[in-house]
Amino acid sequence: MLQTILPEQFGELTEHETDARIREVRERLGRRLVILGHHYQRDEVIKFADVRGDSFKLAEWAANRKDAEYIVFCGVHFMAESADILSSANQKVVLPDMSAGCSMADMAAIDQVETCWNDLAGITPEKIVPITYMNSAANIKAFCGRNGGAVCTSSNASAVMRWALDRGDKVLFLPDQHLGRNTAYALGYRLDEMMVWDPYEELGGNTESEVSAARFILWKGHCSVHQRFLPQHVAEVRAKHPGIRVIAHPECRFEVTRLSDDVGSTEHIIKRVTEAPAGSKWAIGTEIHLVNRLRNENPDRLIIPLDDCGCLCSTMFRIDAPHLLWTLENLFEGRVVNQISVLPDVAASARIALNRMLEITN
Ligand code: 13P
Ligand code: SF4
After folding, report:
1. 135: Cβ below 6 Å to ligand 2?
2. Structural domain for 142, as ranges
3. Which of 25, 153, 239, 314 is 20 to 30 A from 357 via CA?
4. Ligand lying closest to the C-alpha of residue 227
5. Contact at 8 Å (CB) between 325 and 10?
6. Beta-sheet pairing, 216-219 with 262-263
C-alpha cells in the first residue's frame, strides 16, 4: 500500500499546534492506543512513545501486551509487520507513513531466497538452518519458520546462532552479511568458514566446493546507513580524542566492529553510555538521531558520532509529527489508516520463527 499525500492542513500547523493536537487525541484514545517508538525516531516523534526500544524490546512488547486496540508503530515497515504477527487478532497495527521501509530488508526477495535454498540442497546433503535478521520482510521470516529456522535481532543474534548450530551443520544468515559475520566471528568461527551469497550471481557467486566447505552462508545484504562507518573513522576519533571509547552497532562492517571497544544493539549502546561515569568519552557508530539524543541527555559526557557524515536512516525519518497526528486523528474518528496486516498464511509461518526467537532469548 502506498502512502497517501497528507492533507495540506497538517503541514501548515506550527510545531506547537501539532504537539497540542497529538496530546489531545492521545488522551481521548486513552488505553485503546499505545505508541511504540524505535530509538532511531526523531525527537518530535519519540517524545510521544509509550514504549521506546530496540527491535527486540518492541517485538516482545507486541507479543505480551494484548490490551491496546491500536498499536501505532513509529519505526519501519518490518517492525510493524512483526508487531502485527505477534499481537492478537483484535489489535490493529498502524505505521504513520507507509513509505518507511528498510533498504536492507529489500535486499532479500522471497524468490531469490527460495532459489538459493534449492541450489544449496542440490549441492550439499548437510542440514542447513536459516536465520533471518528481524530486518526482513514477513515472507522471509515465514520461509525461516517453514524450514526449521528462526528470527534474530541485533541483541540476541549470538544466542539464535548457537541454537541453529546445535540443530544443523550450516547456517544460512539473511539478509545482513555484517551481522552474520560479526556474530559468527564473536562465537569463535574463522572468516574462511563463511561465504557470501550474492543473489544476482550463479550459485551466489561461489563454486560447489566453496558451498560444501562453508559453515556460514551470509546473504549479500547490508545497511546503507551503518556501512558508511569505516576503519579510518575509528582511527580519526581516537587520534582526536585520546581515551575515547568506540561503540558500534553490529550492522557495521567487520573491520569497524573489530576496531571498536564494544558492539551491540541500540538498547545495548544506550545502556553502556548512560551507565558510564561522567566525563567519559564515546564515539558511536549508529544512526544519528540516537547519537544526538544520547548527547543531549548526557551533557556531562563527550558523545560524538563515529563519523560526521550525519548517518541518517532516511526511512525512519519519514515518520514525523504531522503523520503521527494524521494517523491518530483518523483512528479517533474510526478510520484505521495505514494498517499493517500480514496475510494469515504468511503470518502463521513467520510467527513460528519469531516465537522461536522469543523462546531462545527468554
Ligand atoms: P536494533 O534492534 O539494535 O534497534 O536495530 C534495528 C535497526 O534497524 C538497526 O538498523
Ligand atoms: Fe534498515 Fe539500516 Fe534504517 Fe535500520 S538503519 S531501518 S537496517 S536502513
Report:
1. yes
2. 105-223
3. 314
4. 2
5. yes
6. unpaired
